[in-house]
């Protein structure tokens, strides 16, 4: 039933020998192709002619020899597996002339009433077996000159086992890279769809179109009314028509009456690919080794070079779905339009489609956040020259002498030198900062709740509502490691016996090693940040770094920028090392399913990335300038003074750090995401065309004469293909929630980045990568839990930043209890303490100074002046401000937390109409099953269904109704 067909190059040897050995029929045939294919090189066609030649030969043998007296004009046109041919003149005359010359191929071409187009020929051969009927669902490739005989034995055993599963194979050996084409027949698809518990569309029945009657919903009507001006952002219905509502049920061969399996498009391409890949992952190729199972092991051992499904065409074929998605979805010109999620799901599978659905939803939700952030920034810009603190620094600061920023080498300086810095700080630290922090905290919860509702509708539309990762089959690597384990346990979900892993003997030691190494690298990341902090401290003592300038604004701006750039370099370098280590550690753990494996790996890498990216920002937000001390007694680290915040606060420096790390990282990733795949693809193309098979011969070119050769030069799709994309977006989400108070324009920058990120990711997947294997998922996995935790952290972070890093609370206390006018006039002077220069510690006073007779200098602290009875001690106002800050923390977190809980309670995870639809579909499905079973039973009573057998038992006879094949031979009692 199942054949392995070898397509072998009949013209082995050099090119010149192949040209000399061609008979007349080959020569005429190639000439015909050369005329029809305008830009195709004859030399290249000679190397790739075998595929086309065998197709023409098969067709010729099927049709039989042509007789001269055939009525050419009356002949029914038959599709031919050849390139387009333009027949001119009298076809009958040309046919007879060709027949007299014994030119069967030319006669066969001329006999056709209509010449086929190039697209018709391509549709027949580009993605099909040699018979032109069976589609290629998966492709394996290997080197034709592989010198290792062991690899050939493994390939033969593996392919033999694949055929025993029912798959049909065809091996093509006409180039230096050999390809194994795999086709899954209908019987295999039915069997494994049942094993994988796929929910497939059932037959259309009366009433299924109107599962839920349309009702009047005020919210939907409002959305429709206000959405009319934005019709231009919707998809073109001619290109992406709306899908019909379909009932779905878990596929079962016993209930085959529910499914129209004979329909050509019943088993879609993504289903066919998923089934074949499932078989490839679990097929053995050896007997002795426990690990001799699965295509992944064969790829890692070099037995096969690649294993991949095929794109449905190239980027120049208008009939292909790939061409449509490339032009209408992946193009940056379509940035404002919605995404065709259903078509993306059909092409890439649910996992990738859900990523783009989440990215699109997240980008749309950024629009209100970006607008509010922009308004807050514009408010700060409008009040830039009416800010009392900045005016005091710029005007009164000309006469205020500040204490040196470092020991001995630094001089006194005027407060007015930070005038420009203080004005920029007002852009982010103003009266609306608290409002923006509250808004973003509530926005984060609303976004998560609405995403759950939105994703529930999408998942239901794709037939994945009941899917659970616990129902997944075990990973082949997991089963291979436990091959020798004798202890088994019964899996109540999959109803199978699986190896049992002792927790304390095997799992716990691996977890201990894994997380120990993780915390070690987290410590190294913190140490790297500490090193950057030491660099920042040391630069304040190095006058040469800043040249001869004494501008404090220059010093304040240069140090944060250089430190942030240094931190970005350290972050990027450590990411590459840790990424490799996280994969190695996760492989040591006993993770049963692929979902568990991915979530464990995700958690490891994100935990490290969280510390790596955010630790320096946390330092500036919560630690810098908080424990400095005062000039007579500074707190030191390695004999270096700690950094101080400027009189305008540390928020401006925090903003600089955020801009460089967040925007710089996104720009770098965007460049790498497009440049690296392009360069690798270009390299693969050059290598595949010009690589030499031996040192003596000229290298054979890998000629792209089919979809599998075209896709071979593309980048291989990794099992972690979406991980980096998710990680980039979640890191961005942390920036715009945890630290958004310090950078109100962060949502706007994120919005602009994501608009292009979405289209560039789509273009990258379609153009540079092979088609990924479709995966079923019901949500975005552990990433949602990470975002949920980030929302909680964001509330606490915003409260602490406002309370301890901004001037909001001290200014309120000053206006409420210090200034009788209830204004902030004089607030700056109130925050600066006095210091007697005679109280400097030995060796810390300026060695050289441009100031004469300085007896008093100012520093930013709440401390008693030197003439007080308790000099340099904390005054009462300091404790009042501290109490106000702590009270603000409690109030802010409780109020915002209560609003978040209210939003989460008020917004259900599933819309009401969706719940009603699910119930209605389940009811209709049950009614169909009951009715069909009743009809089946009634038919059985009319027809004899049992026959007496010699042993006195009874045997079921075939009544024409489908039965499960494993039960056909079972006995039944009457």
What does this structure look like?
The chain is α+β, with helices and mostly antiparallel strands and 974 residues long. Helices cover 53% and strands 7% of the residues. The chain has 30 helices and 19 strands. The strands form 8 sheets. It has a 5-stranded mixed β-sheet, with helices on both faces. A two-stranded antiparallel sheet has the order 5-6. A two-stranded antiparallel ribbon has the order 8-9. Helix 14 (350-382) runs antiparallel to helix 17 (433-461) and helix 17 runs antiparallel to helix 26. The longest helix is centred in the last third of the chain and has 40 residues, at 651-690. The protein is elongated, with a radius of gyration of 36 Å. Residues 8-92, 102-106, 109-114, 543-550, 692-699 and 943-974 have low confidence and may be disordered.
Mean pLDDT: 75
Based on secondary structure, the structural category is alpha+beta
Which outline best applies?
elongated
**Main beta-sheet strand count, sense and barrel state:** 5 strands, mixed
Total strand segments: 19
Number of helices: 30
Spatial arrangement of strands, main beta sheet? 1-3-4-2-7
- What percent of residues adopt helix (DSSP H or I)? 40-55%
The low-pLDDT segments are 8-92, 102-106, 109-114, 543-550, 692-699, 943-974
Q: Rg from C-alpha positions? A: 36 Å
In terms of DSSP E residues, the strand content is 5-15%
What gap, in angstroms, lies between the N and C termini?
Answer: 37 Å
């Amino acid at each position: 039933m199942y054949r392995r067909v070898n397509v072998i190059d009949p013209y082995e040897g050099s090119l010149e020998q192949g040209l000399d050995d061609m008979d007349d029929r080959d020569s005429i045939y190639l000439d015909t192709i050369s005329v029809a294919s305008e830009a195709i090189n004859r030399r290249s066609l000679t190397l790739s002619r075998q595929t086309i030649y065998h197709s023409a030969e098969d067709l010729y043998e099927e049709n039989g020899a042509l007789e001269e007296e055939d009525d050419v004009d009356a002949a029914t046109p038959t599709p031919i597996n050849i390139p387009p041919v333009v027949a001119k003149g009298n076809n009958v005359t040309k046919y007879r002339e060709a027949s007299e010359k014994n030119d069967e191929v030319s006669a066969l071409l001329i006999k056709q009433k209509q010449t086929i187009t190039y697209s018709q020929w391509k549709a027949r051969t580009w993605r099909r077996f040699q018979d032109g009927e069976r589609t290629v669902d998966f492709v394996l490739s290997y080197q034709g000159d592989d010198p290792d005989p062991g690899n050939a034995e493994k390939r033969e055993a593996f392919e033999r086992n694949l055929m025993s599963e029912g798959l049909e194979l065809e091996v093509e050996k006409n180039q230096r890279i050999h390809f194994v084409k795999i086709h899954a027949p209908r019987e295999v698809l039915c069997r494994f769809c049942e094993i994988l518990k796929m929910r497939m569309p059932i037959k259309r029945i009366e009433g299924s179109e109107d599962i839920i009657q349309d009702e009047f919903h005020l919210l939907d009507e409002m959305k429709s009314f206000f959405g009319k001006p934005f019709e231009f952002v919707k998809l073109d219905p001619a290109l992406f028509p709306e899908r019909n509502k379909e009932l779905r049920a878990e596929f079962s061969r016993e209930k085959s009456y529910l499914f129209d399996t004979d329909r050509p498009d019943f088993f879609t391409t993504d289903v066919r690919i998923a089934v074949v890949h499932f078989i490839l992952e679990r097929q053995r190729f050896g007997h002795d080794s426990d690990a001799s199972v699965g295509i992944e092991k064969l790829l890692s051992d070099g037995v096969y070079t690649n294993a991949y499904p095929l794109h449905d065409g190239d980027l120049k074929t208008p009939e292909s779905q790939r061409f449509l998605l490339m032009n209408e979805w992946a193009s940056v010109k379509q940035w404002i339009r919605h995404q065709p999620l259903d078509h993306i799901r059909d092409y890439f599978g649910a996992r990738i489609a859900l990523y783009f659905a989440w990215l699109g939803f997240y980008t749309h939700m950024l629009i209100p956040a970006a607008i509010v952030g922009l308004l807050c920034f514009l408010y700060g810009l409008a009040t830039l020259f009416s800010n009392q603190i900045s005016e005091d620094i710029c005007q009164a600061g000309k006469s205020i002498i500040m204490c040196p920023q470092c020991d001995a080498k630094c001089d006194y300086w005027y407060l007015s030198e930070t005038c420009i810095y203080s004005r920029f700080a007002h852009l982010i630290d103003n009266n609306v900062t608290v409002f923006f922090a509250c808004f973003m905290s509530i926005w984060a919860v609303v976004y998560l709740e609405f995403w759950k509702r939105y994703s529930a509708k999408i998942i239901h539309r794709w037939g994945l509502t009941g899917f659970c990762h616990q129902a997944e089959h075990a990973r082949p690597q997991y089963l291979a490691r436990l091959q020798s384990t004798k202890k088994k346990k019964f899996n109540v979900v999959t109803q199978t016996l699986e190896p049992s892993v002792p927790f304390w003997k095997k799992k716990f030691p691996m977890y201990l090693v894994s997380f120990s190494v993780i915390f070690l690298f987290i410590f190294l990341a913190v140490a790297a940040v500490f090193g950057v902090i030491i660099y920042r401290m040391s630069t304040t003592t190095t006058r040469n770094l800043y040249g001869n300038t004494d501008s404090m604004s220059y010093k304040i701006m240069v140090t944060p920028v250089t430190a942030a750039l240094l931190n970005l370099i350290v972050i990027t370098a450590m990411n590459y090392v840790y990424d490799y280590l996280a994969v190695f550690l996760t492989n040591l753990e006993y993770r049963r399913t692929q979902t568990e494996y991915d979530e464990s790996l995700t958690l490891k890498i994100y935990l490290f990335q969280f510390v790596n990216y955010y630790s320096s920002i946390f330092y500036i937000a919560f630690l810098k300038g908080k424990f400095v001390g005062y000039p007579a007694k500074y707190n030191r680290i390695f004999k270096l003074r700690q950094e101080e915040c400027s009189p305008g606060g540390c928020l401006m420096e925090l903003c600089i750090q955020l801009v460089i790390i967040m925007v710089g990282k996104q720009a770098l990733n965007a460049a790498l995401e497009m440049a690296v795949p392009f360069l690798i693809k270009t390299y693969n193309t050059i290598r595949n065309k010009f690589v030499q098979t031996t040192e003596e011969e000229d290298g054979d070119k890998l000629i792209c004469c089919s979809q599998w050769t075209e896709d071979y030069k593309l980048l291989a799709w990794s099992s972690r293909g979406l991980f980096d994309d998710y990680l980039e977006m979640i890191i961005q989400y942390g920036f715009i929630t945890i630290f958004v108070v310090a950078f109100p324009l962060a949502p706007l920058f994120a919005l602009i980045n994501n608009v292009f990120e979405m289209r560039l990711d789509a273009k990258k997947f379609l153009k540079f990568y092979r088609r990924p294997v479709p995966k079923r998922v019901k949500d975005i996995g552990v990433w949602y839990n990470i975002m949920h935790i980030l929302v909680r952290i964001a509330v606490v972070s915003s409260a602490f930043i406002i309370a301890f890093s901004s001037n909001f609370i001290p200014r309120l206390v000053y206006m409420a209890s210090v200034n009788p006018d209830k204004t902030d006039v004089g607030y700056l002077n109130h925050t600066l303490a006095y210091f007697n220069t005679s109280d400097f510690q030995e060796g810390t006073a300026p060695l050289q100074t441009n100031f004469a007779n300085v007896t008093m200098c100012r520093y930013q602290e709440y401390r008693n002046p030197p003439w007080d009875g308790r000099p340099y001690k904390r005054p009462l106002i300091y404790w009042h401000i501290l109490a106000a800050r702590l009270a603000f923390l409690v109030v802010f977190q409780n109020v915002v937390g209560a609003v978040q809980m209210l939003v989460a309670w008020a917004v259900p995870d599933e819309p009401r109409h969706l719940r009603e639809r699910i119930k209605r579909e389940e009811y209709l499905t049950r009614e169909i099953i009951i009715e069909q079973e009743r009809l089946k039973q009634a038919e059985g009573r009319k027809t004899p269904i049992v026959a007496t057998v010699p042993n006195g038992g009874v045997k079921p006879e075939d009544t024409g109704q489908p039965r499960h094949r494993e039960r056909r031979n079972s006995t039944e009692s009457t």
